Amino acid sequence: MTAPDPSSRRGAPLPSALGAVRRRPIPQKPVPSPAPAPRSGSASGLPTVEEVSAGGIVIREHEGTLEVAVIARYNRGGRLEWCLPKGHPEGAEDHRQAAVREVEEETGIAGHILEPLGSIDYWFTVSRHRVHKTVHHFLLRATGGELTTENDPDHEAVDVAWVRLEDVARRLSFANERRIVDLARQVLHHHFPPTSGPGRP
Prior knowledge:
By secondary structure, the chain is of the alpha+beta class. It has helices at about 95-105, 170, 175-190, and strands at about 50-60, 65-75, 80-85, 85, 110-125, 130-145, 155-165.
């Protein structure tokens, strides 16, 4: 686990500068989430669950620097991890709608999708079944809100922070999400024209 950056700024409305606020204590125990019903037929002999999520990279410009909102959550094994906000589509939502909603619920930041960044998929085993998860990522521009995890209905996000773009790879716990950040950096100049300020791609 990458230690939280003490210099992370949080808690002020966009686009004004962030003020110093006291960080909310991180709970010591994970909040369990219900698992979907498994299906049979995996090569390992274990039943397989297909999961789909959507989320992404929400970026703001602050004092000449690009910053990314990232969250901390407990994994199913109880370990704290820093990751990009994401979650399951609800009802008739498509991936884009789910990404916008999940980003705002888990970070408090409203965003507008600029473009898709592709998807990643991976396998893991939970209890007596395997999970094949696909996550669709999008690049979003922050349009309002303030950092908070209080709006997360599942209470999975336990902390949130703005992290400078050049530092976000060191904060994220997973290599596949760091690759999504690399993809975002390749297209950022189309949406955030470079300046002479620090932290620009």
